[in-house]
Queue: 4 jobs
Job 1
Amino acid sequence: MRQAVQSFLDEFVERLQAIRVTIAAGDPAPVKKAAHALGSPAAMLGAISVDRICRSMQDRSEDGPAVLGPLLCELDAAAARTVAELRGYLAESAAT
């Protein structure tokens, strides 16, 4: 489990940045792919809010930056909470 969490954290920033770039480019297909690439592993680790927002981005990818921008703000907030929680888990599990 620790390895899965660490791998997720190692790739998290890159995947979040990919979502930002694809939204800015305005092409729905890469938005769907980037959101899926972040949401699926988040769901496996129990980061339900990140997964929920990523699924919304996938569903609304054709609505463009006006809709995806606010979702990105929600994702940033959920991402910060998720990263903090997962880092806490790693710290606690390393101590035992």
Job 2
Amino acid sequence: MRLTTVILIASLMQVSAATFGQRVTLNQRNASLETVLKEIRKQSGYDFYYDGKVLSSIKSVDISVKNVTVEQALNTAL
């Protein structure tokens, strides 16, 4: 009975943490796209794979989003 309760509580906590980790708030000016992607990764937990050569050719970006989904943050940054 105790083991079942512990497993149930742990499962509920994991689901709750995953839900809150998918919203992003950013406010950066003249930041590199790599910096923006790292911040989105830090806030959301998603990993991004990209070619560093491509990112270095992109000029700096301005982004200001508050409590948006990862998809919306990426669309704004790109």
Job 3
Amino acid sequence: MVYFKFPFSENICTTDSSSTKKWVSFFSFDGSEILPFEGDIKQISQQEFLKKEINTHFLSFNLNGFEEENQNDYQEKLANVIGFIKQNNLSKLVISRRELLNYNGLKINLTQTFLNLCKAYPNAFVYFFIKEGKCWMGAFSEILGKFNKKNSQFETMSLAGTISVNDNWTKKEIEEQKPVTNFIRNVLGKFSENMEQSETYDHVSGNIKHLRTDFKAQITQENLENIISELHPTPAVCGIPKDLCQNAIEQFEKYPRKLYAGYIKVETEEYIQYFVNLRCAEFFKNAALIYVGGGITAESSVEKEWQETELKAEAILKNVAFI
């Protein structure tokens, strides 16, 4: 089962069994796993969705033997990351961690948790799926790409830098977003001679805000998958140069990101859209793992980076509904 809503829409979508076409697919960060959902996309009402009453009884696996990184562990790791960044003269490297949500014998109402996320983040793509005993849920605003089948216009965004909605931008966040913007501009320039770039502006998402720059470009559909392949993973979820940063992520994180920082492809009759899978959680029968991370630069404060991940984890944690 898979359920989702598009940004700025109140409609809940799912897939039916009337088609073998794979209109919705989830891609892992490293590209090693693809989870497709067959069937045409259809809309259902919130009332119809609520009747399903999906909880952790539907899940197959317990989380066993997990050791959570505490604040000291994470900050010590980031100190080593900053040293690596300076040694290799990197503009940015994205590092994540997993926060544990222990149910303490309670059950989670997954149906209501999904609806809470939909309400809390109206401008986000929100999803929830269970497949092969695996369960993930997320709500996020970053679009890797949106292709209009009718006019061949491709849209994407540079979204990076994270602070509380009440704080002011510092040099660190501004410098963090620049390489993402430059990277996207250079990739699109290979495939299009007709490209538009917006001014950089604030993008508010719940309790946090990011710096955002929008892009539009005329492309051919034949080049669409090539563009996505070159864009993913963007510096916003990886760093730059891509290969060096991907290797560094494996070295510092010590665990697979799985679907976190991967992307979701959703195709309709009019559009093909790709959403970056951030602000998400993996649910088990007895606990959940909240995946959070941040862009680390030579200017980073390890304490502030920890606080940023705590803010991001709140996005999921404060919307979890227990039975």
Job 4
Amino acid sequence: MTYIQEIVRVKQEFLISSNERFKVISSNSAIEFATSIIGDEAREIVLLIIMDCKNHVNCYQKIFIGDATKSTCSIREILKAVLLANVTRFILAHNHPSQDLTPSDSDIQMTKKLKTGSK
């Protein structure tokens, strides 16, 4: 009998203890958390923030790393990471190294696709 095994590696940064977990209470606090992780990066980074049902951050993953002006995202890979983490709440964020916070057309389209795909 032959068994086929698939090993899926998901690198997530876990927070040290439940007492130190950050709680997301607003969009501003989500921005604060994301900025603390990727705010000073020179390249565009897409950050997946995984939370429990009470909005405490369990872990995070730098899911895509781009260049100074863009990062290409795969909705499939984002949702795979969410499903493997076995959670119901997540936030996706990315930085803008140029400091221009205006969402690009690709930012808007990706957000719409992620919203549709995660229903």
